[in-house]
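2024-03-11 09:14:02 INFO queue: dequeued item Neuropeptide FF receptor 1, len=373
2024-03-11 09:14:02 INFO validating residues
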Amino acid sequence: RTFTGCPRHNFLKMSCLNYTFSSYYLHSAPVATIFILAYILIFFLCMVGNLLVCFIVLKNKQMRTVTNIFILNLAISDLLVGIFCLPITLADNLITGWPFDEVTCKMSGLVQGASVSASVFTLVAIAVERFRCIVYPFQQKLTPRQAIITITFIWALAIIIMCPSAVTLTVSHDAYHFMMDGDNTTYPLYTCWEAWPDQSMRKIYTMVLFSHIYLAPVTLIVIMYTRIALKLFKSPASIRDAQAEDEGRRVYRRKIRVVNMLLMVALLFTVSWLPLWILILLTDYGNMSSSQLNVLAVYIYPFAHWLAFFNSSINPIVYGYFNENFRRGFQAAFKFGLCLVEIKRPCSERSGVNELVVKRLEQINLWRKNWSE
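2024-03-11 09:14:37 INFO prediction written
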């Protein structure tokens, strides 16, 4: 709710007809509750799932393949999004003004942009690695050391491409615009925005970001996975003959599962971030009225942000569904957590379950042994 004029209690006795007053909260209590619960859900999934992915890859040496090292980097970037961006974006979507300081304004923009850039560059690196292994199997394969060097380059490039945004992001105070709560208490309005010398520069930078961290990478990923699919499903007779043996069939199916998993991750990234990119392009190039921009900012942007952040929480579920090693790791962690809960119960409550606890521990040790093998 935005209006011009004076609040009900104008104790300063000053002319305020040129002042604008907006509601402190952008949404009603039921709508805000829905937003908060939705964001808490993906925050929980993001933290638990990606921490488990990091633990599984780092704990088990057998899991430290080139592809899994890249997946580890994806999990780290998703954790950064969940920790630094998700809570700040939620607060920004609930309150009319910017509720934090300028350092938070700059850091949230830099971390979110760099994390997303690192994610999409990592997806490209994974596609390239799979492309070389499957389409050109006799070429020299990427080593784990080379994968780590590639990841370092990815993060350096991601930070560099987001530096203009971090430099121009600033917090400004609107002297003629105030926020007002239900008790008619007024608060100064601060906004976090990119202060470009010329708005045309902002439009150019938006298009550079769109082409470099969405359009071009997604196009490359589609091309590479298309070539991979053609190689796997239209394989020459020699490959089909090899499938007649159990080992050949097992290798072939494992490659199919890995490609399906990675393709699903890339597809979910593309779909999850597309609405937000459409809104960003509409904001800069749509020549929309202030009322239309207000509708986008208040109602559409929160959902688009939620969908983009949802991508950071869904990846571990995809890994567990398609990859047996990740699935075993998740199951072992879950069973271990249940066992700890039972052990911490009072003795009077555990008197009849000691044998069950011992069996659970034996099952977990067996899981860990099978998993490491």
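2024-03-11 09:14:37 INFO annotate: Residues 1-15, 347-354 have pLDDT under 50 and may be disordered.
2024-03-11 09:14:38 INFO item closed
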